[in-house]
Amino acid sequence: MERSSGNYGALGAGAVVAGPLGEGVRGRLAARADRADGFIENDYLNADDTDNIDETTVRGRLSWDADAATVIDVSAGYIDADNGYDAFSLDNVRTTLADEPGHDRQRTAYGSGAVTWSGSPAFTVQAHLGMAESDIAYGYDADWVFVGFHPWGYSGTDEYLRDRSTVTAEVRLTSQEAGRLFGGSTAWTAGAYAMRQDVELTRRSTFIDADFESDYGIDREALFGQTETALGARSTLTVGLRLERHSASYDDSAGVRAGPDDSLVGGRVALDRTLGAGVVAYGSVSRGYKAGGFNIDGSLPPHLRSYDPEILWNYEAGLKASALEGRLRLRGAVFHMRRDDVQIDSSIVEFHEDGSTEFIDFVGNAAEGTNSGVELDIEYAPADDVLLFARAGLLRSEYEDYINGEGMDLDGRTQAHAPRYQFSLGGSFAFADGYFVRLELAGRDEFYFSDSHNERSEAYELLNVSAGYRGRDWSVTAWARNLTDEDYFVRGFRFGNDPRDGYTDRGFTQLGEPMRLGVSASRSW
Fold first, then answer.
1. What CATH number does the domain containing 348 carry?
2. 4 and 518 Cβ atoms separated by less than 8 Å
3. Whole-angstrom Cα distance, residue 177 to residue 172?
4. Which residues, at least 6 apart from 17, have a Cβ–Cβ distance to it below 8 Å?
5. If both were cysteines, with which of 41, 113, 139, 249 could 217 make a disulfide (CB 3.0 to 4.6 Å apart)?
6. Could you report the per-residue pLDDT of 367-383, keeping only the tens digit for each?
7. For 340-370, what is each residue's pLDDT tens digit?
């Protein structure tokens, strides 16, 4: 069992029960509830919980050894989220003036079943079927303030109601020792995958005369396979291939209908080589993809409703090393990505007859883009009770031949949400009498918020600390996140929404988590 509490009214509780239920039957049941007021103060409503967290999850699993070669697993779960949403401020602070705060709700029930059969000496068969049903509601105060805030003000709300159902199925064959190919040098995996998803949307907005409705369906079928071939005692060649058919259907109350089909190919070729005791070098070339899709909220003009697939080529080389009897571990990599028809989070501003504006997010395509970088991860344990770590990444990204929907030429500009560096430094220290301490300093460089404007965050660093006591069957931990209470921005927009400046086009930002303090305790039996 676990309990936690913290500032901003945070309370959490969780419990897990697991163990045998009979001969060959095992079970696990977990439940978790979290409540918090959030970090927003609504001065107009004199409330501190309009951006609250209220989430409950329940998960269960049964595993049955049906016979010596067959294992059946069944799992199910339920998610109930009833969160508030009141995060927009005209002054870019954590104080809001909305008279109709929004919400971010979800009810999801899911379940799955899997059968693993290992009765053949040549291969193992795994079959999986999963289903999920979700009711999702998201809404917000579009003007961000109260009626009467300014003589030129307007008032409006926007709400999106989604019913989403998903079914997935997969069959996978994996070689056993007797089923290896080419004289036993090659292990293999082969399988098939299918998915069906339906999303029914109803949008209710002050800015449209009648509810907007759409129905979006996706069908995916794929075949995949992979081989791992030993090239002598020190090298392994991995070759993988995935062929996918992606088809969609879209129909909405505005009369827009479409049914695109895409044939997609992904794959990977990698070579691993052991250079010495505890040292492995690798190189790989891979092709990935993102399927195309639709923006289904109904606000966009028809030519922006759909977006095309994105193709990614990734070239990577790296090193994994372990030394000093495992006390020193190092992982490093360099990579270069080539992206075609880059899928981007973009936006437009729509002007209404009353003089107000609406900021609309959507997914679009840029022409091309490149990402190149270096990643390094080091862990060092100078003693049994001390672990030091350092993780860092450098990234250079840019667009090529891309002019966005606002007419801005972004050729050579850094891609959105792509900081040039990120890092994490710290250590954990355990003491013989059960006490422990963990310190971490994490930071990232400035980055653009969007590809539709040039608003950007500032570079920032966050200090996280925890300390506590760990007994044989219980523990207690005091923790602090963002201990120095650093102000940093996580989202940014640019449009006109402030009547005080005549709805002048300018930047708006949302602040990240302030200093969080709390205590967690757990007990096991």
1. 2.40.170.20
2. yes
3. 16
4. 27, 28, 29, 30
5. 249
6. 789 999 999 999 999 99
7. 988 887 777 676 666 556 667 778 787 789 9
Look-up: residue for tokens 């080589």? 273
| Nearest one of 101, 48, 106, 59 to 82, comparing CA atoms | 106
Give the chain's mean pLDDT. Answer: 93
What's the structural domain count of the chain? 1
pLDDT value at 304 more than 90: no
Alpha-carbon distance 452 to 404, whole Å? 7
**Contact partners, residue 71, CB within 8 Å, separation at least 6:** 63, 64, 65, 115, 116
Distance between CA 370 and CA 340 in Å, rounded?
A: 9
Q: What angle do CA 449, 452, 456 make, to 5 degrees?
A: 25
Which H, E and C letters describe 410-472, residue by residue?
Answer: CECCCCCCCCCEEEEEEEEEECCCCEEEEEEEEEECCCECCCCCCCECCCEEEEEEEEEEECC
Q: In terms of pTM, does the model score above 0.85? A: yes
Mean pLDDT confidence for 165-193? 97
Distance CA 104, CA 86 (A): 10
Q: Which domain holds residue 142?
A: 2-523
- Name the band, by pLDDT with cuts 50, 70 and 90, for residue 173: very high
Q: How far apart, in Å, are the Cα atoms of 107 and each of 315, 352, 491?
A: 41, 33, 26
